[in-house]
Write a structure and sequence with these properties.
With about 260 residues, the protein is of the alpha/beta class. The chain has a single domain, classed as Spore Coat Polysaccharide Biosynthesis Protein SpsA, Chain A (Alpha-Beta Complex). It is about 45% helix and about 15% strand. It has 9 helices and 10 strands. The chain has helices at about 20-35, 55-60, 70-80, 100-110, 130-150, 165-170, 185-195, 215-230, 240-250, and strands at about 10-20, 40-45, 65, 85-90, 95, 115-120, 125, 160-165, 195-200, 205-210. Helix 1 (about 20-35) runs parallel beside helix 2 (about 55-60). It is globular. About 45% of the residues are buried. This is Glycosyl transferase family 2. One of its GO terms (molecular function) is transferase activity. InterPro entries: Glyco_trans_2-like, Glycosyltransf_2, Nucleotide-diphossugar_trans. Keywords: Membrane, Transferase, Transmembrane, Transmembrane helix.
């Protein structure tokens, strides 16, 4: 799946959904300004913030898109819709990418034209130092443990994700953007993965907040959203039926 003319480098859009995270967003935008491969544009989607998030984004040179509809799914989809790049990279406002994040992702897409989306790991950069690594491993492993059998392939992790603009346009009408109770990245994986390959990029390093473990309520909410993301795709995507469809689609496509 090609993104554009083979003799031209792909253009890059970075999408950041945000709600009341001005300080974290400023830190994220500073890290993006220090990339070895600068993006062609940064699209910040203001999900009805009451703080200075939009002003912070504009001051950093980002394009701000207003999304009053509540929920990360709506905000993320609005950002993808607005993105002009051949490649759409996505992270959260509380994330801090290493300086080579964009360069690593772009290189991976150029080396693997058959892959429509890449996802990577993230490490915690706040909270108690001793538990950052083990908790990050548990968090990511739990996601894979649940998502891979359900999907029949890798999921997408929204804190460190990228997809081709063409892939988004192919699935944009089918994602559950109006449902604030689904995980937008997990939902996106259902739709992209049914048609295209999703690759894992271990070299793309990302820092993220330990917010998932901030409280028991936060964890329960994430679990609830995960279950809802799965069940809204049933019965069409019940695992045996989905696995068969994914396998048939993958092996029926002509190899490039």
């Amino acid at each position: 799946m090609q993104s554009g003319p083979c003799d031209a480098p792909p253009t890059v859009s970075v999408v950041i959904p945000v709600k009341d995270d001005a300080a974290e967003l400023a830190r994220c935008l500073l890290a993006l300004a220090r990339q070895t491969h600068l993006p062609d544009e940064i699209v910040v989607v203001d999900n009805d913030s009451t703080d200075a998030s939009a002003d912070v984004a504009r001051h950093a040179g980002a394009r701000v898109i207003a999304c009053p509809q509540p929920g990360i799914p709506a905000a993320s989809a609005a950002g993808y819709d607005a993105a002009d790049g051949d490649l759409i990279l996505r992270l959260d406002a509380d994330c801090v990418p290493t300086a080579t994040w964009i360069a690593t992702v772009v290189s991976a897409f150029e080396r693997h034209p058959d892959v429509a989306a890449f996802t990577g790991y993230a490490r915690f950069i706040d909270g108690p130092t001793l538990v950052r690594t083990p908790l990050a491993l548990v968090y990511f492993a739990a996601y894979l443990f649940v998502a891979v059998p359900v999907l029949g392939h890798l999921p997408i992790f929204g804190s460190n994700a990228a997809l081709r603009g063409r892939a988004w346009r192919d699935v944009s009408a089918t994602v559950h953007r109006a449902d604030p109770l689904v995980h937008d990245d997990f939902d996106l994986a259902f739709h992209v993965g049914a048609r295209y390959r999703i690759g894992y990029l271990p070299a793309s390093s990302m820092g993220m907040s330990m917010r998932p473990f901030s409280s028991g309520r936060a964890l329960v909410l994430r679990v609830h959203r995960g279950l809802r993301t799965i069940t809204v795709h049933w019965p069409d995507d019940l695992p045996p039926r989905r696995w068969q469809r994914v396998i048939l689609h993958r092996y029926s496509r002509p190899r490039r």
